[in-house]
Amino acid sequence: MKRIAVFASGGGTDFQSIIDANERVRFCDIVCLIASKSGIGAIDRALKHNISTAVFSKKDYPDLEELYKKLTYYLNLNRVDYIVLAGWLKIIPESFVKAFEDKIINIHPSLIPAFCGEGYYGLKVHQAVVDSGVKISGCTVHFVNEVPDGGAIIAQRAVEVKTDDTAESLQSRILAEEHKLLPYCVKKLCEGKIIKTGRKVAVID
Amino acid sequence: MKRIAVFASGGGTDFQSIIDANERVRFCDIVCLIASKSGIGAIDRALKHNISTAVFSKKDYPDLEELYKKLTYYLNLNRVDYIVLAGWLKIIPESFVKAFEDKIINIHPSLIPAFCGEGYYGLKVHQAVVDSGVKISGCTVHFVNEVPDGGAIIAQRAVEVKTDDTAESLQSRILAEEHKLLPYCVKKLCEGKIIKTGRKVAVID
Q1: DSSP 8-state class, residue A87
Q2: Residue A142 · residue A153 · CB < 8 Å
Q3: Closest CA relative to residue A16, chosen from A2, A40, A39, A38
Q4: CA-based Rg of chain A, rounded to a whole angstrom?
C-alpha cells in the first residue's frame, strides 16, 4: 500500500475527499497531514481520522529552504511515496521538487493553462474567471514541477460558468468536481496506473 | 430577418453548418460569402446554395486598409447586419472592427483564453493542445474586438483530449462541436437573444 502525505493550508475539504474515498475503498495509507500553519481546519479533519499532523510554518522557519529541508527529512522518515498538495499556498523551492520528482501532485481550480500561475489561488482564480466572461472553467490535477501550475497534466474536469455566477458560487460547483477528481487521481497514482512521458500523462482505466 | 455575411478562407465546413441549420429552421438571410481568395471550397458551397460570393484577396488589394474599406462599402451596400467569421485567416484592422462594433462574431477552435491569439489558427491550435498534454480543449464563439481572439465570449463547448489524439483527430471532434455551436450562436444573435454587457455575454434561452 502506497504511503501518501497531504499538504494543506486551509479548511481541507480536498483532503477530506481523499479520506472519504479511501475509507470507501482503501487504496493508500494517508501517513500524515502537513499543515502550513497551526489552527487550520485540515488539522481537525486529520485528528478526527487518526492521521498524524505536522505543522511547517513560516513562523517557525523564516527560511523557506530550511523549512523544506526539514520537511524532506520528515517525509523520508515517514517513508512517504507520494505528496498530494490539496490547497497548499506555499511556494515550493526547486530543490524540494527535485527531491520528489514526479512524486508530487497538485490540484488547481481552473482549466490549466487558463487562470493559473503566480497570483492565481483560491477565490482569486474564480473571480478572474467570472470577470473575464469565459463560459467554461474547471479543475486540473497535475504533477508539480519548478513552474507554478506548470507540470504535466494528469486529469481535468470542465465546469460550466453561468451568467449569474459569483466567484463563490462558481467555486462551490468546481469544488464538488475537485472532490471527485482528486481522490480518483490519487487512487490511480497509488495503483501505478498513471504513466508520465514528458508532458503527456496517460491514466489507465 | 437579419442579414448576415459569412467570411471564410478555406473549405467552409463552419459556413456549411450555418447554411444547413438555416435550411432546417430559417433564422437569417445569408446575404453573401466573403472569400479571402478565389478557388476555396467555401465558394462552391455558396454557389450550390445560391448565395452571392465576393473575393477580397491580398492579390487584388495589397493594402489591407484598402481591402477592408472596399469590403465595408460592399457590406453596407448589401445591408449586412452581422458578420460571421467562419475560418477567416486574415488580420482585421481596428477600423473595420469599429465600423461593425459588436456586429462581428468569430469561432475559434480552443477554449479561449487558452491556445489563442496570434499564431494560433487551424491545425496549429490542435497541435499545440496535443503537445501540451492538456486533457480538455474545445471551441469558442466570441465577439471580435481589436485584440486577436480577445473579444467577449458568447459560448464555449468543452471537448475531451484523448491520450492517443493527433492534431487531426482532435480537430475532427472539435469541428463536430463547432458545427453545432456556431449556428446556435448565429441564430441567437439574429433573434436578439445575445446581450453583451462589457466582457459578459448572456445568451437568453
Answers
A1: S
A2: yes
A3: A40
A4: 16
* Angle of the A13-24 helix axis to the A167-190 helix axis, nearest 10: 40
Interface of B with A in 6-35 (CB under 8 A): none
Q: How far apart are CA B126 and CA A101, in angstroms?
A: 29
Going from the C-alpha of B52 to that of each of A141, A175, B2, B21, B43, the distances in angstroms are: 50, 51, 16, 18, 9
pLDDT over 90 at B91, yes or no: no
Exposure letters B159-195 (e unless 16+ CB within 10 A, then b): bebeeebebeebbebbbebbbebbbbbbbbbbeeebe
Q: CA A5 → CA A72, A95, A109, A178, distances in Å? A: 11, 18, 20, 18
Angle of the A123-132 helix axis to the A167-190 helix axis, nearest 10:
120
The interface predicted TM-score (ipTM) is 0.93
Q: What is the pLDDT of residues B22-41, one digit of tens each?
A: 999 999 999 999 999 999 99
Rounded CA Rg of chain B: 16
SS3 of A117-132: the string is CCCCCCHHHHHHHHHH
pLDDT recorded at residue A18? 98
Contact (Cβ atoms closer than 8 angstroms) between residue B27 and residue B191: yes
- Determine the Cα–Cα distance for residues B157 and B173; give it in Å rounded to an integer: 11
DSSP-derived 3-state class of residue B99: helix
Q: In angstroms, rounded to a whole number, what is the distance separating the alpha carbons of residues A185 and A180?
A: 9
Return the ∠ at Cα B83 (arms to B80 and B88), rounded to 5°.
140
Q: Give percent of chain A above pLDDT 90.
A: 97
Measure B118 CA to nearest chain A CA, in Å: 16
Coil vs helix vs strand at B35: strand
Alpha carbon distance A104, A123 (integer Å): 23
Chain A residues whose beta carbon lies within 8 Å of the beta carbon of residue B111: 111, 114, 134, 136
Cα–Cα distance, B92 to A175 (Å, whole number): 40
3-state secondary structure of A31: strand
Identify the three-state secondary structure at position A71. helix
The reply to whether B181 touches chain A by the CB within 8 Å rule is: no
Distance from CA of B134 to the nearest CA of A (A): 6
